[in-house]
Each structure stands twice: as structure tokens, then as C-alpha cells.
Predict the 3D structure of the following.
Amino acid sequence: MEKRYSVIIFDLDGTLIDSMPYHVAAFKDLFKEHKIKIKNGELEELIGQPTIKIFEILKKKHKFKEKILDLREERRYHFFKFLGTQNIAFPGVMNTIKNLKKKYKVAVATGSSRITFSHSTTLDFQRLFKEVITVDDVRRGKPAPDQLLLIAKKLKTKPSECLMVGDSIFDHTAAKNAGMDSIGVLTGGSKKKDLLKAGAKQVIESVNDLNKFI
């Protein structure tokens, strides 16, 4: 990619940290506890959007009686239970970010809440980034562009000078809506063709391959 960027915005879950199995397990454990039957694969298609949005979609379809905000709080405890105190950053990612910081401002736009971000990452990891915008900081999460545009504003950068890196189709839809280029990574389980269809300019195996393309 020949274009010059000044800011790189990363998704978190499935992109920088290997948290997706824990998120899925937390949802499934919660649904089992409440006897809410969700079909195999149905949940995985929604992962990458804010938790509240996922619950809204599933509640509309399955008509369960539980309140969404209550379920969100419960799901966090299930997630923390599965996660424990593990460091789940993908191997090599922190060194990659440190190297990228020599040339770019780096930021995170995550569909997770601030408390989940804090529990999912170490302090050393958190300190790598110039800005971290969680779903708590905006009215609309991805695939809306709000988080990405807020980062561009805070870092005093034009959207066209930002590059989004993410593992889900929602990351690339958000980037397209924000007027930003994006690169897809395969570490979250999405297929290359789906990421390209959603708007990714390139698809790479992991964040550690980013230097080859920018």
C-alpha cells in the first residue's frame, strides 16, 4: 500500500488479543444458565459488534424476557471467570506495536467496554497506545464510524490519514463509513473473502505482518 498514514487504529478482540474464544464461551455459558437456546454459529456471526447490539438482535429473534443491561453485566462476570489472569496478547504483537510507534500514532477502537478492556490487557499493553476508545465513549459502536472518527479528532488527524486494522467485517464497514482505509487480519476467524468484501484493502495473517504492507 503506497498511501502514507499518520495514525493506525487497531481493533482489540481477535486482532491484538486472543480473546474471542473467551467472549464466545461467556455468551454461551450465560445463555445456558438462562436456558436461552441459540443455534450453533448464530452467535459467532454477530461477534465484533457491541455486546448490547448482540443482545438486542438475539432478543428480537428469540423473544427472551431477561433485560439486556442485566445480561450484559452477567456476561462480563462469565468472561472474567473464563479469562482469569492470563495474558492473552497474541505473540509478538507488543513488539510490533512498539516498532510501529516509531513512525505512527497508534490507537485502539474496541467494541468492548472500558472495564473489559482493562481486564483483558496488561498495563504495559495499555500504555502502548496514544488513544483507546471503547464502546462506552460513543453513542454507536462499530459498524458505525463514531469510534474511528473520535480517534481522528482527538489525534488531530484527517480520517483519510488513518488506517484501520481489524479482524471482523464490522471493523471494515466502520472504516469505510469513516472514510478510512483498512487492512484485515485472519486471527479472529473471519474469512479473507468476507473481509475483502467488507472493504479491506489487504488481508494479512496477523498484525505482525503489517510492516510488509505499510
About this structure: The chain has a mean pLDDT of 93. The two ends are 6 Å apart (CA to CA).
